[in-house]
Amino acid sequence: MFKKIACYITAQDQGNPLRQVDNTKECDKIEKESVITIEPSSTFQEVIGFGGALTEAAAVNILSLLPHQQEEILRRYFDPKEGLGYKLCRIHMNSCDFCVDSYSCDDVEGDSELKYFNIERDKKMVIPLLKRIKEYCPDLKILVSPWSPPAWMKTNGDMCHGGKLKDEYKKTWARFFCKFIKAYKEEGIDIWAVTVQNEPMATQVWESCIYTAEEERDFVKDYLGPTLEEEGLSHIKILIWDHNKDIIYDRVKTILSDKEAAKYVWGVAFHWYGGDHFDQLKKIKEEFPDVNLVFTEGCQEGGVKLGSWELGERYAHEIIGDFNSYTIGFMDWNIVLDTMGGPNHVGNFCDAPIIVDKDQKKIYYQNAYYYIGHFSKFIRPGAKVVKSSCSDARLEVLAAKDQDDTLAVVVFNKNPEEIEFSMVIGEKIFCGKSPARSILTIVLEK
């Protein structure tokens, strides 16, 4: 059935990460109490890939390094062989907290015709880096998310501290999306999709803008969707919500129950900050089977904790839970931060898979980088998630089948003890070990 088995492991206090080991072998019978069952014929959603956000902060950090170090980071993320094989990238339209300061692409008060719209700021760092990234990943899918419209379009006259989009500027704001997409196209960068608003229920000290479910529904239905069509951009995918999972079902139901709004909505974007709530994702997919679920942001807050093993474990738990709940793509937050966890213009420092010391010109690969790689390197775009289960609640499992029927099984153990397991795939039985605090990817080729 399988002509080749390869195993890759990352474990706490056990040497090189993502190293190949002789860990799992074929057995005659089920020998262990912990039994993993994989059903390759029972397939679910098709995966579009993994990725992360190229914020202005990430760009500043990458460009602070020596040229060969810059190239190393881009290669280690986006090259499918030498790196993680990232296929997705999120960027911000106007500033977000992970910028040097607050700005928009049109800060001219009352410019409803957007005569002064420009992306000069993006041309300095983000766009040149995107061009370099596309050398490794020509078919990169770029997602655009706004944190706030320009201050003059808002009820509070401020890009930060919440506020709402003024009614008289809703059409202008929809056109703003179009101008941004077209300006990037002129630079040779194709945009794949947009979210309506980053975290539309959060009033933050950084860039933020509030939409109720009804307001987001109506903006998509009456402004964003029709305007993209008018501007010849109907191929641009629209994702709603872009916030946590705790109330995601009710929010999505309000929007997708309206057929005139739903016809413009390709997907639902979500973050991890409000807890697991994987059942909410399943509920959405069961009621609205045509909608696509995409994880668009997650990071460990509170600054950098170099060497923290919990960092990678948080990613593994999220990815397994999400993809076992119909998610098709996963985007990390900042791909690179500095040793403070910034730059961030309001001091909202966070952690990231790669940390750079700009002064010492050093690059630190955290375990999150390798934990994500256990999925992204082996579960490639076009693969389909397959049914998997485990009799032992201490192990978390995700399995996917590639287009050539190669099977990738990821086994995650966050416990302090080694767990031996039997794995059943059809009539075949395998025996393996999951070391303490480890993640294991088993690749079975037919």
TrEMBL record:
<dbReference type="GO" id="GO:0016020">
    <property type="term" value="C:membrane"/>
</dbReference>
<comment type="similarity">
    <text>Belongs to the glycosyl hydrolase 30 family.</text>
</comment>
<dbReference type="InterPro" id="IPR033452">
    <property type="entry name" value="GH30_C"/>
</dbReference>
<keyword id="KW-0732">Signal</keyword>
<keyword id="KW-0378">Hydrolase</keyword>
<dbReference type="InterPro" id="IPR013780">
    <property type="entry name" value="Glyco_hydro_b"/>
</dbReference>
<protein>
    <submittedName>
        <fullName>Glucosylceramidase</fullName>
        <ecNumber>3.2.1.45</ecNumber>
    </submittedName>
</protein>
<dbReference type="InterPro" id="IPR001139">
    <property type="entry name" value="Glyco_hydro_30"/>
</dbReference>
<dbReference type="GO" id="GO:0006680">
    <property type="term" value="P:glucosylceramide catabolic process"/>
</dbReference>
<dbReference type="Pfam" id="PF02055">
    <property type="entry name" value="Glyco_hydro_30"/>
</dbReference>
<dbReference type="GO" id="GO:0004348">
    <property type="term" value="F:glucosylceramidase activity"/>
</dbReference>
<keyword id="KW-0326">Glycosidase</keyword>
<dbReference type="InterPro" id="IPR033453">
    <property type="entry name" value="Glyco_hydro_30_TIM-barrel"/>
</dbReference>
<dbReference type="Pfam" id="PF17189">
    <property type="entry name" value="Glyco_hydro_30C"/>
</dbReference>
<dbReference type="InterPro" id="IPR017853">
    <property type="entry name" value="GH"/>
</dbReference>
<feature type="domain" description="Glycosyl hydrolase family 30 TIM-barrel">
    <location>
        <begin position="48"/>
        <end position="379"/>
    </location>
</feature>
<feature type="domain" description="Glycosyl hydrolase family 30 beta sandwich">
    <location>
        <begin position="382"/>
        <end position="442"/>
    </location>
</feature>
